[in-house]
Design goal:
It is globular, with a radius of gyration of 19 Å. The chain has a seven-stranded antiparallel sheet. The protein folds into two domains: 114 residues, Translation factors (Elongation Factor Tu (Ef-tu), domain 3, Beta Barrel); 110 residues, Rossmann fold, CATH 3.40.50. The chain contains six helices and twelve strands. The model has no long low-confidence stretch (mean pLDDT 93). Helices cover 30% and strands 34% of the residues. It is of the alpha/beta class and 237 residues long. Strand 8, helix 3 and strand 9 form a beta-alpha-beta unit.
Length: 237
Amino acid sequence: METSILQQIKKRAGKFIEPQLLKAGRVLEVRAWTPATMIEIDLHLPSADIENWNEVPYIKVRVDDLCFRDYTPSGWDAETQTCSLIIDAAHDGPGSKWARTLTTGDTIQYLKIDTSRHAPDPTNLVVALGDESSLSHLLALQQMVRPITRFTGAVSFKEAAHRRFFEEEFRSPLIALAPNGTIGHESLLRWVSTQGFCIAHTIFYLAGNDNLVSKLRSTLKDQGFLSNQIKVKGFWS
């Protein structure tokens, strides 16, 4: 009974407090992959200062009453003030439920747009590694690297159909891999071992599940890469 009362208070508070703080965007299109555990959402964000996105950004999106999730735009256009999200909706959390209910024309609300502090190194080779939960983050990083020949990397997908779809539909140097190991890190490390990256001129950007990111970082340091050559962004445990 006490929990129910607290939930009611929280819900009522959200209705009064959130509208004063939130900004709005409009859903232009929603595309679900097959199987529908990966969802692409195109947004128009009229209040966003997209022109000044000089580091990989994230949007703190309202997914329920007083409940927010951080999502990274996978690509953006400052002139039209549009961007896209790619959301891993395989787990049954509030963010996944929110993403699955969106349709074209819906209004979304967000608290703020901030930076993940990931900006591509200006001269060295940029190598991005992650899982499907980090796909938007890795593609955002790709958009910032010039020339694109300085960008490479790999991302693991649990679903074979998702790997095929990514390879067929996305123009990206990222390689789609099947995950190996209990947390999916082994296939990514095996790919790294075949590339012959120069230790002195390579910067790694790791993103995704906290456990995956931690294991990748530890192994890369064991291979001789320094801490300042490994940038990390973990999403959840």
